[in-house]
UniProtKB/TrEMBL annotation, chains A, B:
Similarity remark: Belongs to the alliinase family.
Positions of the Alliinase EGF-like domain: 33-88
InterPro entries listed in its UniProt record: Alliinase_C, Alliinase_N_sf, EGF_alliinase, Ethylene_sulfur-biosynth, PyrdxlP-dep_Trfase, PyrdxlP-dep_Trfase_major, PyrdxlP-dep_Trfase_small
Keyword Transferase: yes
Name of the protein: Tryptophan aminotransferase-related protein 4
Length: 457, 457
């Protein structure tokens, strides 16, 4: 009887095992041609870089069959980025938005995308355009959930970064009225240096960079003939302030650069509704490397001219990039931006608290201040937490602030790059946590010298 | 005894099963965060489109949770592309290189790439550049295995398609000597229309498109002062012939557009060794949609100017695209290009045989002819099998060849777009097999009318 029972038990057990194995082999999803790509990605992601770097599938040496190496954050070195270089200079120059990287690492599963070797080989999507309709839809959705821009009755154009769209929009607007003299491109000081550099480098016969919009208003305020294009960056790069157009009139066209108009950096205080606005993936999700931006355009003629510009300069944006961006924005829009914007905002808020604390102890250096405003996104009054510190050296004996900071081993960008004075420097606050902490350490040192210096007087 | 044996057998079996399950769960590779991306890709790839279309992961409606729909080849319709539209007009206009799609479908596993949500978010690679070193290496390797270009002592620049690099190189060369009058851009007729369109649209003060290089040589052959840039497209678009520079002299700069210099289209008769050459992924692997091209540049000054152009227009090429291209080229270089170039060449060879057969029956239409040459890649004398048929309408009463073909439901590109005469039309031969077969059918009809007409006389 006992043996019979045991026999029965074993039989049942065997049956259960057999069914388990069969089911496991047949009904669970078993990847096939995607196997090795997935394994490669997992391998790279599993390389440990001590939290101070990361390895990428296309890292140096992978063609030789090597495991992708760690690429370390600034001031970290060693095979696994575990060695901190002491007294290492801080790079606060670039607006590299790596502060959002931790968020995307947490969203590993949802944000991953597998590109097949035959993905959209054609020049065109099925509607004959260079633009993914699904991506266009999700961009409209993104603006809706954030509440930063009206997208109804707007054309959308994609660019290889907002960079390409700045050039395209300036070019399109400069060709609206082909008067004999070129259109003047203006922006109020301090302004993003690329506006000037592009206009001067591309040397179109139809455009000339003319500098400060306020200066123009003062000297040529009555000129209703010369065609003028003003770029309004709001929040502004470098100082994070909300900007409005300085110029108006029948001869004035305006481009609104809203690259920084996201809840991380500033309150979303109003739903913008302009003729031509630019946005950049870099500052929206942190993917600067993907080179993706978009424009919202009201006027059909301007839209057509911009489209022609994008066609002739690059025949649109890479279709694999468009697929990638779609996947990223699916994650963002999925929860109404909740997790990403909160994470990013909390990160920058903490950074600004630390920064303000340091600068509050200084009379030699000052920071920009911006009054809190109500944010329609977070539904509360909140501080501005801009991407950049716009530092001023207050002493007469410190005319060149960039140099002062550089001596203290902090590399920023000098005010003159923004049409402003050398007493200003822009410091990037949106890089990795490591880099921000290095910046804080160096700033502490610098400011403590000042206090110590005052004590010794 | 028998029961004991059975008992033992069952025990062992249970042990084996247990071990199997444990091992299966722990030691085989089990994908984790890559799971759903892989499943999504497999799902899309498994959509059946009757061999006349394909579904992509970012197809219309996926945001609503729908399965990606079939996107059908021209003249096919229905949910699964199984319905052939009768008497449907043929589109032989675009140089969409879908003839290589079947190759990439066969290479599904090797060519797939999984992009993580935190892939290279930074503006720069670790060396501070916008260029993947591994990708640069494999491009040099590709040229080595094909034998179409010297890459030693050359700088490599990436562009958002060769399109962007045409603009960048023309711009760079026009700024070498800043004389008061603009550089003249020339190309010998028939030439690729984008050269002209870019120069005219971007309206740089330093460049003016001047048309035919032969005409310039004839009228200004002695002018050693005016700065001149000649673009040499070889094999040529539209007619597939090998071209040499027409102009020379101290005031002449040359850009070699080698977009079509791959074994599919022409014999690789010599290892090119020029100052500035352009290549395009579109015509090399068929990935027109990925917008990727590269330039080989000898002179450091020109290289720096081109780099500056790429920086100011787009801050380099999307890092996810660079990863994708690396994966594709790994497949190609893996077997020395063997499989891809053979497949592509055999495809075009068959297409040209069919085409030649049809045109041999016509006196009304003629095709370009190019003498066979020895190909260093295939190690044999072989025919040219260009991407495009350069059709001439031979009759006086057919002055506009584009219109003649359009009436016969074949859309090509008129000769005047290439600076040539209206008696020429370019027909694309590198689209999908479906589209080529439609073209052949329509051409047969057209030519048979001619024969029937002759019979009736």
């Amino acid at each position: 009887m006992t043996e019979k029972k045991l026999f029965l038990t074993f039989s049942i057990l065997n049956l259960v095992f057999t069914v388990y194995i069969l089911c496991n082999d047949s009904t669970t999803w078993s990847p096939r041609w995607t196997n090795s790509a997935a394994a490669e990605a997992e391998d790279a992601a599993s390389v440990s870089c001590s939290g101070h770097g990361r390895a990428y599938v296309d890292g140096l040496g992978v063609l030789d069959g090597n495991k992708p190496p760690c690429e370390c954050n600034n001031c970290y070195t060693g095979k696994d980025c575990s060695v901190l270089v002491s007294d290492c200079p801080v790079d606060a120059n670039s607006g590299n938005p790596l502060f959002l990287e931790p968020f995307w690492r947490r969203q590993a599963e949802k944000s991953a995308v597998l590109v097949s070797g035959w993905h959209r080989m054609s020049y065109i999507y099925q509607d004959g355009s260079y633009i993914s309709e699904e991506l266009e839809r999700i961009i409209r959705k993104l603006h809706k959930v954030v509440g930063n821009a009206v997208t109804d009755n707007r054309f959308i154009i994609f660019g290889t970064g907002a960079t390409q769209l700045i050039a395209a929009s300036v070019h399109a607007l400069s060709q609206i009225n082909s008067s004999s003299s070129p259109s003047r491109l203006l922006a109020s000081i301090p302004y993003y240096n690329v506006y000037k550099e592009q206009a001067e480098f591309f040397d179109s016969t139809h455009i000339r960079f003319e500098g400060d919009a306020y200066a123009w208003k003062k000297s040529k305020g009555d000129d209703n003939i010369t065609q003028v294009i003003e770029i309004v960056t709001s929040p502004n790069n470098p100082d994070g302030k909300m900007k409005r157009a300085v110029l108006e009139g029948p001869n004035v066209k305006t481009i609104h650069d809203y690259a920084y108009y996201w809840p991380y950096y500033s309150p979303i205080s109003n739903l913008t509704d302009e003729h031509l606005s630019l946005f950049s993936l870099s500052k929206a999700t942190g993917h600067a490397g993907s080179r993706f931006g978009w424009a919202l355009v009201k006027d059909k003629g301007v839209y057509e001219k911009m489209k022609r510009y994008i066609t002739l300069s690059s025949m649109g944006v890479s279709r694999d990039t468009q697929l990638y961006v779609l996947q990223l924005l699916k994650v963002v829009v999925g929860d109404g931006g909740e997790e990403m914007f909160h994470f990013g905002y909390e990160t920058l808020k903490k950074r600004w608290e630390m920064l303000n604390k340091i600068f509050s102890m200084s009379t030699r250096f000052s920071l920009q201040t911006i009054k809190p405003e109500y944010c329609n996104y977070f539904k509360k009054v909140r501080d501005f937490t801009p991407s950049y510190a716009w530092v001023k050296c207050e002493r007469r004996e410190d005319p060149n602030c960039y140099e002062i900071l550089r001596e203290a081993k902090i590399t920023g960008r000098g005010g003159e790059m923004y049409g402003s004075e050398e007493s200003f420097v822009r410091l990037s606050l949106i890089k990795s946590q490591d880099e921000f902490e290095q910046l804080i350490d160096m700033l502490k040192k610098l400011v403590s010298q000042e206090v110590a210096g005052a004590d010794s007087i």
